[in-house]
Design goal:
Rubrerythrin, domain 2, globular, binds zinc ion
């Protein structure tokens, strides 16, 4: 997990190579990944999770973890 401070904005997350978040539903345990690149750059992570609903149970208690592709090493 990447730590960018308490409540990073989309701009800050994308600056760190984050293109999506790994979302976790506290209601049913469903895990999915949600792209953040289409969101306004000033949207904060807490706002992102507040807007998300679980696609499996429609639960609104969602936690998100940042996923970065920036540190992934080239294969060749
Ligand atoms: Zn759920």
């Amino acid at each position: 997990m990447i730590w960018l401070g308490d409540d990073p904005t989309v701009a800050k997350m994308m600056g760190a190579g984050v293109e999506s978040v790994k979302a976790f539903c506290l209601c049913c345990g469903h895990l999915w990944s949600a792209p953040i690149t289409f969101l306004p750059s000033a949207t904060t992570l807490s706002k992102v999770t507040a807007l998300m609903a679980c696609p499996a149970c429609n639960g609104r208690r969602v936690e998100a973890e940042l996923v970065s592709f920036a540190k992934r090493r080239p294969e060749h």
